[in-house]
């Protein structure tokens, strides 16, 4: 088994890309041994949907694309990052504003914590940011090494 696997896809910052990001991650996780029918798989797909939605909606046209990175370290830790080129970090909106939107990061934090993981944000060299989640891996690694998808 490989100590590290990673794959990525870059998508246009368009609402249709949210579903594409979710399907991409779902396919990769299934290839790595985590079937769609698991609760963790459902949670990861919801987190990816929220992260991709944020990358599309909150970059205000300053990020024409976003990238989804999926990494598995030593069959122990799954990391998923969504990178866009907008410099503003995600933030919680005031409660009054959260009535119709603004709960994405709260949902992501809660779901990540419930799975025993953590959320972090890191700057990119190009001036954007990557929002990462890291979760314990709960399935045995299957199949051969996978390279980057484009």
- What is the number of helices? 3
| Percentage of residues in strands | 25-35%
Strands, total number: 5
Q: State the strand order across the main sheet.
A: 1-2-3-5-4
Q: Could you give the distance between the termini?
A: 24 Å
* Mean residue pLDDT: 85
Shape by Cα distribution: globular
For the biggest sheet, the summary is: 5 strands, antiparallel
Low-confidence stretches: 143-150
User: What helical percentage do the residues reach?
Assistant: 25-40%
- The sequence of SSEs as H and E is EHHEEHEE
Return the structural class.
alpha+beta
Radius of gyration: 15 Å
Write up what this structure looks like.
There is one protein chain. This protein has 150 residues and is of the alpha+beta class. It contains 3 helices and 5 strands, in the order βααββαββ. It has a 5-stranded antiparallel beta sheet with strand order 1-2-3-5-4, covered by helices on one side. A hairpin with a 3-residue loop joins strand 2 and strand 3. Helix 1 runs antiparallel to helix 2 and helix 2 packs antiparallel against helix 3.
In short:
The chain is 31% helix and 27% strand. It has helices spanning 16-31, 39-57, 104-114; strands at 4-12, 65-73, 77-84, 118-123, 129-136.
List the SSEs and their pairings:
Layout: E1 4-12, H1 16-31, H2 39-57, E2 65-73, E3 77-84, H3 104-114, E4 118-123, E5 129-136
Antiparallel strand pairs: 1-2, 2-3, 3-5, 4-5
Q: What descriptors fit this protein?
A:
single chain, 27% strand, 3 helices, alpha+beta, 150 residues
């Amino acid at each position: 088994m490989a100590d590290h696997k990673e794959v990525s896809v870059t998508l246009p910052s368009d609402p249709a890309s949210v579903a594409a990001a979710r399907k991409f991650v779902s396919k990769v996780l299934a290839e790595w041994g985590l079937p769609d029918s698991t609760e963790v798989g459902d949670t990861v797909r919801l987190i990816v949907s929220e992260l991709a939605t944020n990358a599309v909606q909150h970059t205000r046209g300053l990020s024409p694309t976003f990238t989804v990175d999926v990494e598995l370290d030593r069959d122990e830790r799954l990391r998923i990052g969504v990178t866009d080129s907008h410099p503003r970090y995600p933030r919680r909106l005031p409660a009054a504003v959260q009535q119709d939107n603004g709960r994405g990061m709260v949902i992501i934090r809660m779901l990540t914590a419930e799975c025993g993981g953590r959320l972090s944000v890191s700057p990119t060299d190009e001036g954007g940011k990557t929002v990462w989640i890291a979760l314990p891996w709960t399935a045995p690694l299957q199949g051969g090494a996978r390279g980057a998808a484009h």
